[in-house]
Amino acid sequence: MATAALEAFYDHRRFVPSEIRLTETWLADEITDAEIAIPGFSILRSDRGSQGGGVALYYSTQLKLTGINDPPFQSRETLWCMLPLDVTGLCIVALIVTLIYRPPNNSPEADSLLLSDLNQFLARGHTRVLLMGDFNCPQLHARVHSSGSFQAELLALCDLIPLYNHVLQPTRFRSNDTPSILDLLLNNEELMVEDVHYLPPLGASDHVCLQFEFVCYASRVADVSIFTRRHANFSLLRNLLLANTLSNCAFADSDTAWRDFAFFFQTPISIATITTNLPVASIRQFRFRSRTMKWICRRNSAWLAYAYARSPDTWETFRSLRNHCVTLIRMDKHEYQRCLARRFAANPKYLYKHKPGITTLTTPTGTVTTPTQVADVLRAQYVSVFTPAPNHIPIIPTIHFGPSLTDIEFTPSNVISNLLHLKVNTSTGKDGFHPRVLKGCANELGFPLSMLFSHLFSNSTVLAAWKSGSVIPIHKTGSRADPSNYRPVALLSIISKVMESIIADAITNHLESNSLLHPNQHGFRRQRSCLTILLCARDQWTQAVDDSYPNHIVYLDFSKAFDRVDHSILLAKLHSCGIRGKLLL
């Protein structure tokens, strides 16, 4: 192990890690720690005792890392360590770090010892676990292994805990061999590992260097009160809407029309609903049940008694209560997680209330952390994906010569039908009109909304209030510090979406009834989803194989496709399909 090369490697990158983990150190007992020391780091090591193998862990002298050997671990070439993160009273929050080297020719007995140690270690229920090393399991990602093999047992263990692997690219490269994933980075919390980088190998090694960040803590959201409207007297609200009619059916202009409707709808809502202040923390934070809190109080009292008397009886009392509290806390956490799973199944969007927000973003000039800076970076990212309008719009030939679609009738029955199909779990827009209220008062709102929609359509106007929305960044995949990995989701007015739905239905019916859509087009069509295209494609591929024809399949994915749609070309294509008049104004 070339210590000088290791120092130069990190000095060159001006990166000072908290820990450096090495496998295949080839160290022996006659090599002392002083000979391989790195300034500013302490070392823990586990040597093979013969040529080859071994692991070593360098850690910053500012960290209080200690080795674990209780109970004694039987597997060789492994390190089991604990890093205390916080000590508050009787509660010790620690990160458990494990470094493993498993030789490619490891014997079945050695594999059994390693799996036994892993099972025994993970059964303790630590909340922060980080396992990494060279496992020499190149086919682990295949998920199909012979029964009883080490890879099958390790994969079953990862599924049981569960453990998340963050190494998704090959880590070993040799000139004549296929690149493979031999090094693994496993932990029990998927979001704790960020920014995994695959750096060039150290010295003459054929393994890449893995650099990553481990998130020990997540910042809590301040207990800011928010408004929620969950208590509504719908009978009273419907009666108020029936009594409070729009006084002027002939709107002077679009803004007046919207103000009149907002007043018509908002006043009864303020009377018939109860607004409750609810802190954000009460939505997301896990809380013990009252029964558990009572037992925790008993445990604390028993600890005080033991601290005062220091007798075997008081210790036994405290130990019994402590173990009982641990059991109750685990039961509460499991019940809380089951409750969350049921809520997620009923409303998938509820998941985003529990996902962590954006804390840091990386830019070419550095890292931003404040909410204002993060918002500015995301805004610049979203603006950058739009392309300017082309100087030349291609001539699109007319493909429909039948009756054109020029007008849409917004009838009360049509509006009511769309209101009744609203999803009540949809987020509200900036106007604050909740879909649950709109759906619950569909019959009363059908006529005034039909008047509003007809007025806007006849004047070819889109309200300024409908063009304003709240943009929510949703993480797609990859590093959470990369702004390009966040998809913008705009929360617009629900009422505007109702009008859009009526227009979209009319356009879709025109395209479908006149056979203007290609039969192979799937997605955003009734009875033609992503699943149906997969079934059709699979059927064609199977038929080609049966007929002894070769299959050549090309997958295309357009980056930021929706954001890059040019509206002028889109309008020209709609015009060629017979969609004319005020629909295109």
Write the layout of secondary structure elements.
Layout: H1 3-13, E1 19-23, E2 41-46, E3 55-60, E4 66-67, E5 78-88, E6 91-101, H2 108-122, E7 129-134, H3 150-160, E8 164-165, E9 183-187, E10 193-199, E11 209-214, E12 225-232, H4 234-243, H5 254-272, E13 273-279, H6 280-284, H7 290-309, H8 312-346, E14 361-363, E15 366-368, H9 371-384, H10 412-420, H11 435-440, H12 442-458, H13 464-467, E16 470-475, E17 486-491, H14 494-513, H15 530-546, H16 567-576
Parallel strand pairs: 6-7
Antiparallel strand pairs: 1-3, 2-3, 4-5, 5-6, 7-9, 8-9, 10-11, 12-13, 14-15, 16-17
Helix pairs in contact: 2-3, 4-5, 5-12, 7-8, 10-12, 10-14
Describe this structure in words.
- The chain has 585 residues and is an alpha+beta fold.
- It folds into three domains: 212 residues, Deoxyribonuclease I, Chain A (4-Layer Sandwich), CATH 3.60.10.10; 64 residues; 217 residues, no CATH class.
- Helix content is 38%, strand content 17%.
- It has 16 helices and 17 strands.
- The strands form six sheets. It has a six-stranded mixed beta sheet, with no helix packed on it.
- The model has no long low-confidence stretch (mean pLDDT 82).
- It holds the Pfam family RVT_1.
- InterPro entries: DNA/RNA_pol_sf, Endo/exonu/phosph_ase_sf, Endo/exonuclease/phosphatase, RT_dom.
- One of its GO terms (biological process) is larval heart development.
- This is Reverse transcriptase domain-containing protein.
